[in-house]
Amino acid sequence: MGKLEGPEVITDPVQFPKSFKEAPQLAEQVKAGKLPPVEERIGQDPLVIKPVHEIGKYGGTWRRGFTGPGDFANPRRASSSDRLLNWDLNGNEVTPRMAKSWEISADGWVLTFQPRRGMKWSDGHPFTADDIMFWYPDMFQNRELTKPDPPFMYTANGPLVVEKVDDFTVRFKFPDPYFGFLKVCAAPGVMAGQAAEGFNFRGGFAPKHYPSQFHPAYTSREEFDKKVQDAKMDNWISLLKFANSWHLNPDLPVMSPWKTTQPNNTPTWVLERNPYYYAVDTAGNQLPYIDKMVLTLGETTEVINLRAIAGEFDEQERHLDLAKLPVFIENQTKGGYKLHLCGRTDRGRSGSP
What we know:
Elements: E1 8-10, H1 24-31, H2 38-42, E2 47-50, E3 61-66, E4 85-87, E5 94-96, E6 99-104, E7 110-115, H3 129-140, E8 161-166, E9 169-173, H4 181-186, H5 194-197, H6 221-230, H7 236-243, E10 258-262, E11 268-273, E12 279-281, E13 292-297, H8 301-309, H9 325-330, H10 332-335
Parallel strand pairs: 2-12, 3-13
Antiparallel strand pairs: 1-2, 4-5, 6-7, 7-9, 8-9, 10-11, 11-13
C-alpha cells in the first residue's frame, strides 16, 4: 500500500519560483480581459507547494461520493488550506498557509500573524486584516451567533483580544502567557478555516465585504428586514448562517482551491477552480491543477463503497469501510484504481492533488 507521503510547504525564498503560469481556461479569460494576470491574482507572497512526485498537469474532474447535506465536511477535507495555519503531513510541526509568518512574544502573551500580502477572495476582493477583525467581534464574539462562553482553549485566565496592527498584521493577545495557542490555531476547531467552520461563525476570518450585508451592525433595519424576508428565512441568524456556508452558498467569496457552484443540498455537488487561489507549485503553476470536483449522492455509505470498488471515483477516502480492505485490494485491477496508505486528508494537503 506504499508509504505515507504528501506535498511539502516551501518556506526557503531561494526555492520560490520567479515566474508564474495558470490553467488554460484562466489564461483565456485573462486574454479576453475578464481576469487580471496571474501575478496579480496570487499576490506578492503566494504559498509555494512542492508536489509529491512531479509537477502536475491542468485539467480534469475529480469524482467523489457524498451522503447528503450533512456531509458538508467531505470536499473541504481535500481543500483545507483556507486557514491561517496547518500541520505538516505527520502532524508534528505547524506550517504556513494563509499566514505567511507568525511570532510569539518572549513572555507568551501575544501571537502576531502576518497574512500573505496580495491574497484575494474568489471574487477578486483583497483579503486583509479587516476580514479577521470582522470575524472576531461580529461573528465569534457575538453571543447571539455562538455559544454563551468561548471554548476554554481560547482563554488564558481571561478572553482572547484581537487587534489590527496594519492591513497585513494582526495580534492575538491574552492576559496570561499562552505558548500553546499557536498549535491551537493550526488544529481543527475555531480557527480551522471558512470551509470547515464558517457556517458555525468560526474559522478565523470571513469576507467582510459579503456577509456584513446580512449583519444588523452593518445594514439599516429596513434594508435588513427586507433581506430576511426576501430570502424566506426565519431570522437574521439563519440568513447569515446560510450566507457564510461554504457548502451551500455559491455566492460566498472563498479562499479555498475550489468553490461551490452547485450546493450540497442537491444530488450533485459541484465545486469549480478558484481563479484567485493564492498557492503555486515549485514551477510557478497556480494551483489547483484540477478544473472541478463533482460529488454524487450515495443514499448510504454501502452505496459509496460499492461505487468505489467499481472504480467510479478518482480519489475517495471518506466513508470507505476498512473492513472491506480485502475487497478493495482484490478489485484494484478490475476497478481500475490503486489503493494507497494515506494520513488524514485534511492535514498537510495543498489543495493540489
